[in-house]
Specification:
Layout: E1 5-11, H1 19-33, E2 36-41, H2 43-46, H3 53-58, H4 62-73, E3 76-80, H5 90-99, E4 114-120, H6 128-140, E5 144-145, E6 150-152, H7 168-187
Bound molecules: ligand FNR.
Ligand FNR binds next to α1.
Length: 192
Amino acid sequence: MADEVRIAAVAGALRAASLNRKLLGLAVRELEKAGAVVEVIDLKALALPIYDQDIEDAAFPEPAARLKQSLLRAQGLLIATPEYNGSIPGGLKNAIDWASRPKGPPGAPFRDKLVLVMGATPGPAGTRYAQAHLRQSMVNLGAWALPGFVAIPHADGAFDERGELRDDAVRAHLAKVVALFVQAVRHGVPKI
Ligand code: FNR
């Protein structure tokens, strides 16, 4: 379809019970409601090696190539990430580092891409440093990072037993932000 909007969605945490995987799942549902075609990238399943230029020079790893392809296919990127020590979790940063390399599938997978960053944490600060650092990294790669709209502090109590957000206002906010994101991706960004 000519007006199809493809979004790649990735959680910055690997563990199965991750709060950010839960948040990502809810955001994906909203993306689909807004008409987007979503590809979820699972960093645990990808099992990327730690970035090492010796590995890259020997042969671009197949999981890194798959990651790059998935990102290149998408017009927008949604990331739900925890914060580790006031910054981006290493696994997520490692994935960005691999995908940013010119080797492997040709193309710059972050350039001219709208990126929506969100995060959940049991802590009080709502992943604000991780989000800020991630936006900086994305912008450095030529992406357009939206401002910090979705940050869920005290998230260990934020989801009910079905994995739904308990707070109606937070749920409505997430739906609104995701719908606006899809609208913005559909509209497109100016090419610099
Ligand atoms: C954390 N955590 C954490 N939380 C936070 O709000 N700010 C921080 O700087 C950190 N730092 C940090 C470092 C490391 C190494 C770990 C493992 C954890 C706590 C973190 O938010 C919590 O474990 C989340 O539940 C992790 O996200 P997922 O796995 O639930 O998505």
